[in-house]
From TrEMBL:
Catalyzes the GTP-dependent phosphorylation of the 3'-hydroxyl group of dephosphocoenzyme A to form coenzyme A (CoA). Pfam families: DUF359. GTP binds at D39, V40, D58, E112. This is GTP-dependent dephospho-CoA kinase. Its EC number is 2.7.1.237. It catalyses: 3'-dephospho-CoA + GTP = GDP + CoA + H(+). The keyword NADP does not apply. Signal peptide: none annotated. It comes from the Archaea. Pathway: Cofactor biosynthesis; coenzyme A biosynthesis. Keywords: Coenzyme A biosynthesis, Coiled coil, GTP-binding, Kinase, Nucleotide-binding, Transferase. Belongs to the GTP-dependent DPCK family. Residues 140-167 form a coiled coil.
Length: 169
């Protein structure tokens, strides 16, 4: 499991890509491999008629229960991911979903916010990742442009092995 160090929290609040009012205004190429992270982002994306290849939600909006019923033609995976972490289970679920030929909805028990990083790292180069910027809109990330930055950030996380030892990754 990877744990977000306190020193990175401010940096991760800055958008990784361009900010748009909603997915409707974001320039998403037709037929794009889309990954959406967050309940509001995924709900609004589906409202535009676009179906993500992978959607990652936690049934919460800003730490409160979500009223959105997110449903579309997708296989469902469930995993645990406590706040401020990236679990092996989340990473493996994202990898499985991306490498399959199917649409997937990953429902996270915990928090899905940091799923953006493994999504960028594991996505095909031409993938588009959309995630919410609270009270501002949606951020559009082009995987190939942000992969190196995401990998560098992940290296700064603390890795907790099964025996409980902590190391910087």
């Amino acid at each position: 499991m990877l744990i977000l160090p306190r020193k990175l929290r401010k940096k991760l609040k800055e958008p990784f890509g361009r900010l748009y009012p909603s997915p409707k205004e974001a320039p998403i190429p037709k037929g794009a491999f889309i990954i959406s992270v967050g309940d509001v982002t995924t709900h609004r994306l589906l409202q535009t008629g676009l179906k993500p290849r992978l959607a990652i939600i936690d049934n919460r909006i800003q730490r409160r229960a979500s009223n959105y019923r997110i449903q579309y033609d997708a296989k469902i995976l469930k995993c645990e991911n406590p706040p401020a972490t990236i679990t092996d289970e989340l990473w493996t679920s994202i990898k499985k979903a991306i490498n399959s030929g199917d649409n997937f909805l990953i429902i996270v028990d915990g928090e899905e916010d940091l799923a953006v990083l493994p999504s960028i790292i594991l996505a095909p180069p031409d993938a588009i990742i959309l995630y919410g910027q609270p009270n501002k809109g949606v951020v559009l990330v082009k995987a190939e442009k942000m992969k190196e930055k995401a990998e560098n950030l992940i290296r700064e996380f603390k890795e907790v092995k099964e025996d409980g030892d902590q190391n910087n990754r």
